[in-house]
Amino acid sequence: MTITKLKLTNFRNYEEQEIVFDEDINIIYGDNAQGKTNIIEAIFICSLGKSFRTNKEKELVNVLSENESCKVEIFAKKRDREIAIKYEQTDKKAFYINNIKIEKLSDILGNIYCVLFAPDDISILKNEPSKRRRFLNIMISQLRPTYVYSLNQYSKVLEQRNNYLKQIKHEGKAEEMLEIWDEQLVMLGIKVYNYRKEFIEKINEKIKEIHSKSTDYKENIEIVYKTNISGGKKVKDSSEFVTDVEYKDKNRVIKIEEKYIEELRSKRRTDIQKGFTSVGIHRDDFETYINEREVSIYGSQGQKRTTIISLKLAEAEVIHEEKEEYPIILLDDFMSELDKKRIQGFLENIKKNQVMITGTDSFSIPNTKYKLYKVENGNVISV
Length: 383
Fold this sequence. Notes:
It is a single chain. By secondary structure, the chain is α+β, with helices and mostly antiparallel strands. The strands form 4 sheets. A 6-stranded antiparallel beta sheet has the order 2-1-4-5-6-7, with helices on one face. The protein has a 6-stranded mixed beta sheet with strand order 8-15-16-3-17-18, sandwiched between helices. Helices cover 39% and strands 25% of the residues.
């Protein structure tokens, strides 16, 4: 798929801007703080329904404008049709598909597919598990929009259970009532878990060949899902689970619902004392290994950078395989981290995708079709 045109109105530092994109590679360059990343952000919002930079929608409105609203419009071509996505931010945010307002935010998902590469992506490997869960949530939502509904419902039940835990401690409420929340957490948590396990398996199918090729077949990579609902067990492949709802432990098979409930009950007294739920998919994680050594601990900076590239390229391949569309590749100041050889090799892997590249300097790509845009003080000029 390709984005043909982007229109911005009072978005970030843009007052009125229209950009017509090339179907291949688009290089957007200029000094810092001129508005390059804002273009990437606008595309991301119309793809995923939210920004990757802020949770405060009001920050998206041009602070110099007297109008307290902003608008982003994207026009795209898919394999079988054209589509227009519009995002408006006033008192509330609203999305439109082909000028029809959508009622649920999840309806925006799966219309424009994109994969974002950003400078701080390496933190996915180095920092807290919440970064990795966020990565999973964003990527799975493009493939399975119903995942967002299950995850949101789980979050609501989790919040209700946490509130009730505090009421038990401070107000003496009946502990037995936790069974209601536990049953709902288990039902929704297993749905989210199955989505995540499926996605990790698909990533593993793609990433091994991608990473091996990029390292001259010197490194073998593996992503391992670590689920909290079974006591922190690491899930390497489907063979460890007899079905989506059964858990294999030594020589016996336990329904995973039973295992999940057992974990919740075993931590109940601790949860009451602390006032929050310590067991559940909200604490899941994944680990990355190169040649059986954990990258976050033993990997060099170069290995971590290469791992992130492999992970995102695998994600792009999964989207293409599932949806028969090549996702838009968004490279926000990402190429500055790579040498010329790695840049050329990286671009070889995404030559069938439309690419948006931002950077401080213009550069040429030999034997490749591309278009240049210069950004200066909120104005984009096709060079």
